[in-house]
Each structure stands twice: as C-alpha cells, then as structure tokens.
Design a protein that fits this description.
The protein is α+β, with helices and mostly antiparallel strands and 598 residues long. It has 2 domains: 377 residues, no CATH class; 114 residues, Jelly Rolls, CATH 2.60.120. Helix content is 52%, strand content 15%. It has 18 helices and 10 strands. The strands form 2 sheets. Strands 1, 2, 3, 4, 5, 6 and 7 form a 7-stranded antiparallel sheet that branches. Helix 5 packs parallel to helix 16, helix 9 packs antiparallel against helix 10 and helix 14 crosses helix 16. The radius of gyration is 28 Å and the shape is globular. The N and C termini lie far apart (57 Å).
Length: 598
C-alpha cells in the first residue's frame, strides 16, 4: 500500500512503518501504560484488608459473658458470621433477652440486628445447632461500644475471638467489606478448600475456586484476599489481548485499540472484581484460541515441526485449565477442534492439489506430519487436560480421605464421576427463575445486566451491575456480523484468522441457544473478545481500502472510554446521587441497571 505524504496521515504512517508481529519499543510503552492504568482502576476500592479473621465456634450450651464496663443501652449489634447455622441468645442484667439466628447466606459480611437491651453485662448462649462468628460489634446511638469477654463457660477459649478485632468494624457495611452475589458460594468454597471442609458449591469444577484460594492464602479471608486473583487475571487479559491483536494485525495502533476496548469494557471490569469463577474460564478460553492461532498461522509444510507443535501443546494446556475452571471451556474446546480439523483438511487439499514433481513429496510430508500431529493432540488435548481436570478435584479427595481411612485411587475416580453426574443433573434440571435472567439473543445489545449489589448510603446510592459497555458490545455485535457477511460473499481475502474469530464467536455463543435453564448476560462474556477482534479486523480491512477513515478506530476507543466513565458508578459500587442514578437508568442508552428498583 502506497504511503500518503500528506501531513494528515503522519500518525498513521508512523504506525505503518513499524509493522511487525513482535512487540516493538512503542508497543511496550503503550502496553505498559495501558496495563498500569487499568491495574490502578481495577484495584481501586477492590476490597478491604481490615476484616476479622479469628473465629468463635460454639455448640449448643456454650456460653460466655460480655462486659461493657458500665451500664449502657445496646441499640444494635453487627454480626460478621462464618460458616454455620445456629442461634445466639443475649440476656441482659434485668433478664430481658433477644436472639440472633445465624444463616449461611450472611457469612463474611456485616449484618445488623436490633437488640434494644440496657445492661452492663451481656450473657451470650448458643441455643441450637452450632454458631461460628468472626466478630460481633455493639452500638449505642451509632457509637461503637467498648466490650470485653468477662467469663467463659464450658471452657470454650474461642469465645475470646468474639470481640477481639473491634478495630476491623467499618463505619458502614458495604460491598467493600463483605461478600456479595455469588461470592457466598465461590469464595466460601475456596475457604473450605483451604481448611479441608466439605465443599458447599460443587456445581462447577474446582480450579477457579482454587485460584481464589491462593489469594486468600496470601492476604487472608478478607474481601481483598478473595477478590485479588480475579482482578489480576482481569489485568492479565489486557496484555494478552494486545499480543493477540499484534499477531493478527502486525500494527501497533490496532493492537492498542483492541486492548484498550477490552480494558474499558464494563463487564470485563466488573466480572473480574468479584470472587466468582467466570474470569478464569474466559481468560483460559482467550489463551487457548491465541495459541491455536499461533499454530494455524504457520504453514503446515514449511514451518519447522516443533514451531507448529508447541503452540498446539500450549493451547491444549489452556484448554485443560479452562475446562477445570468452568464447563464453558468445553464449548470453546469444541471450537478448537473445528479450527484444527479445518487447518488439517486445508493442508490435505493442498497436498493433493496438482501433479507436479513435488506433489508426491508434499503428500508424504502431509501424512507424516498428520500422524505426528494426531499423536501430539492425543497427549495435549486428551491426556494432559484429563490429568489437569482430575487433579483439580484434589480438595475433594483430601476431604474424603480425612473421613474415610480406606479411601484410595478407585474411590477418587468414583468421586470425580459422581460429581460430574451431579453437575450435569443440576444444570440440566434447573427450573429456577431469576430477576436478572435474559435470553441469548438479547445479550449482544446488553438488554439486562446482572445485579450484584445495591445499598443506600446517606443521600446517595451504591450499585454494582454487571453489564457490557454499549460502545464496545453494540458496535462489535454489528461489526462481527458485517465481517462474516463479507467473508461469505467472498469480499475478504482468506486468512487463518477468520477461522479463529468466527469459530471463537460460534463456539462460545451458539451453545447457549440450546440451554433451557435460566441464563444471564455474563454468559456472553467469553464471546465478547471474539466479536471485538472481528470488528477491529473489519476496520483494519476498511482502512486498507480508504486511509482517510483511520480516525474511526480512535473515535470508537474514545467513545468506549467515555461510556466507561459515565457508567463507572453503576459498575463499581461508587456512591452517586439519585439524580445521576436516574440518568444512567432512564436516559443514557445502556442496560437495565436496576437503580430504579430501589
């Protein structure tokens, strides 16, 4: 393509001169700045590190006495529960009493309960089942009351842990200092894995929860601890997208645009800042398709054999990690198979095309490499992923072995198979409905978000809704369809990237058409990178035809950043005025954010 000497194309020419699939100095600079900016945004107000971690555990009949130092009126108490279900009875000096029933849905967050007792000493007794508490805080006229453990009955020394971390009591209870949404399943299960307990959430494979557990092991069972790994995986997606796009376009500007759009997608931000497992599945899906592209873009006949096979192996490892995180990895894996077989059939067509002197040699080389590739795939797409998946259930095996001394390898296999049957039965027979459920055909246009959290804070409202950035999703949805139509009509020159993009969309999106249970907008999360790359690719082709439209991609990125800023209060929990919340809900073209439901 000829260079235009006009000054208006000076910036465009700068990017064109450095065409390379490798990261150049400018790439490293832009990628470093983008990743740093996104990291700061992602970690801002992620979660507190000031959270009670010592635990009181009591069984029926256990009791203790608390001392406030003087007679006070206890208006309310804040309870930060652990994993248990039971009832505490509080008895004042005059015999008046109140009860608090701990529920497992209230764990690892601050729950307020009215006591309305006037006393100096407060007798606390476990009434039924078992109680497990991280901390209790008592208030009088919104002032935190100093309290100590005076006397312990039944020699339960964990009673000292009930009020020993009063400095962790926040001014207000919020998402920042407690579990929200499905964290009560996944972060809880990560905690159970660490402590060799029977797991509560078994409806998804374990790897995502094991990754969450790593953050907890490093930072403690605190909101920051159970969210940090998801946030870091979200950060890692930015350079991954940049490198993926650089391989495709060999242009710094298009790599930056793709990574920037992904960084400022609202769902990418929100979904990775909560301790659920979707982020891990999507990360490994993007990784497995990246390595598959590294494989198919190399010529089957002329590329050194190991340069072909190692990307294939890494794609298989990513596939195994994706499946062990969430079953959406299996959908993506089926797409990988389609891409691989298409590549092999294309090579076979090339091998058997023509009758020149080199045809027989090409055919012999094809079959030699085909059988090597088949054996390689058996190892890296069957054996290794199977081993990864089997080993991901280690916490299940460890727990079963702790209660069954004769537990062995056959029992481990039976545990694995039983869990797969239970998972399939759960998902295939689920009939529950949900306020936030939506249909697959509504997802590309962000019809309805998934509501994670809402709380009134004084005269403001704090809200977290998981939704896509309309500037990213709506444009990408249209662009991906346009690119596909151009390809079908033969107006686009064939390129290995087409199979990656189109199959990436189909494998991660079309299976949901067949799912009859209630589904949600975040199930489209794994499809977004592929419609995004498809639309950037369309712009790339359009710019090659008409250099004067090079500004469109920058305008698109700018619009996405503006939309991200406008929606930030709705996706981050940042308290905002009810007036602005009304603007986001009723004026700004976006998803249903549920501000109006409060």
């Amino acid at each position: 393509m000829k260079q235009d000497a006009s000054s208006k194309f000076e910036i465009l020419s700068l990017f064109e001169k450095g065409q390379s699939e490798k990261l150049l100095k400018l790439d490293k600079l832009l990628l470093g700045v983008l990743t740093l900016v996104y990291t700061l945004i992602a970690l801002l107000n992620l979660g507190t590190l000031s959270f009670p971690t010592t635990v009181y555990t009591g069984k029926v009949g256990d009791s203790l006495t608390l001392d406030f130092g003087k007679t006070v009126t206890v208006d309310t108490a804040w309870f930060n529960g652990n994993i248990a279900k039971g009832t505490l009875r509080f008895v004042a000096d005059d015999g008046s009493e109140e009860t608090y029933t701990q529920d497992q849905g209230d764990m690892f967050k601050w729950q307020e309960s009215v006591l309305d007792l006037t006393t100096r000493y407060l007798r606390v007794r476990v009434e039924n089942e078992a109680v497990s508490m991280n901390e209790i805080a008592f208030f009088s006229n919104d002032d935190l009351l100093p309290v100590t453990v005076l006397e312990v009955f039944n020699d339960n020394q964990t009673a000292l842990n009930l009020v020993d971390e009063q400095d962790t009591v926040p001014e207000t209870a919020s998402y920042f200092n407690g579990m929200i949404f499905d964290e009560i399943y996944h972060a809880r299960t990560a905690y159970e894995n660490i402590h060799n307990m029977s797991v509560y959430e078994w409806t998804h494979p374990p790897l995502g929860k094991l990754i969450i557990a790593l953050g907890i092991l490093i930072f403690g069972m605190k909101p920051f601890g159970w969210r940090i790994m998801g946030a870091l995986f979200g950060v890692a997606m930015v350079p991954l997208m940049y490198v993926f796009a650089k391989r495709i376009f060999k242009r710094t500007d298009f790599a930056f645009i793709a990574a920037g759009l992904w960084a400022f997608d609202c769902m990418h931000f929100t979904q990775t800042r909560i301790a659920t497992i979707d982020v891990y599945g999507v990360f490994f899906i993007l990784l497995m398709f990246f390595f598959m592209y590294e494989y198919v873009r190399r010529d089957f006949f002329t590329a050194p054999l190991m340069e072909k096979l190692w990307p294939l192996a890494l794609s298989g490892v990513a596939f195994g990690l994706g499946c062990a995180s969430k079953w959406i990895g299996c959908y993506a894996g089926a797409g990988l198979a389609v891409v691989l077989f298409y590549h092999l059939f294309s090579a076979m067509f090339t091998a058997y095309k023509g009758h020149d002197k080199g045809a027989a040699k090409r055919r012999a080389l094809f079959w030699d490499r085909l059988w090597l590739t088949a054996g390689w795939c058996c190892i890296w797409f069957l054996l290794v992923p199977g081993l990864i998946y089997f080993l991901s259930y280690f916490p299940y095996y460890r727990y079963e072995a702790s209660i069954r001394p004769s537990y062995g390898l056959r029992d481990m296999w039976n545990t694995l198979i039983k869990n797969q049957k239970d998972m399939y039965k759960y998902h295939s027979q689920l009939t529950a409905t949900h306020l936030c459920q939506s249909m697959w055909y509504q997802w590309p246009f962000t019809f309805k978000s998934v509501w994670f959290y809402v709380e009134k804070v004084g005269g403001k409202i704090s809200n977290i809704s998981s939704t896509g950035n309309p500037a990213v999703w709506w444009i990408s949805a249209v662009g991906a369809v346009c690119l596909f139509l151009e390809w079908v009509l033969g107006k686009v020159k064939k390129n290995p990237v087409h199979s990656i993009l189109f199959v990436g969309v189909a494998a991660n999106y079309l299976p949901w058409i067949l799912v009859t249970r209630c589904v949600f907008l975040y199930h489209f999360f794994a499809t977004v990178p592929f419609i995004l790359l498809s639309t950037v690719y369309l712009l790339f082709l359009m710019e090659q035809e008409n250099r004067r439209i090079h500004w469109i991609k920058w305008a698109w990125l700018g619009l996405a950043v503006v939309y991200f800023i406008l929606l930030y209060p709705a996706i981050s929990g940042l308290p905002t005025s009810f007036g602005y919340a009304g603007f986001l809900e009723n004026v700004l073209p976006a998803s249903v954010l549920y501000y109006g439901w409060v």
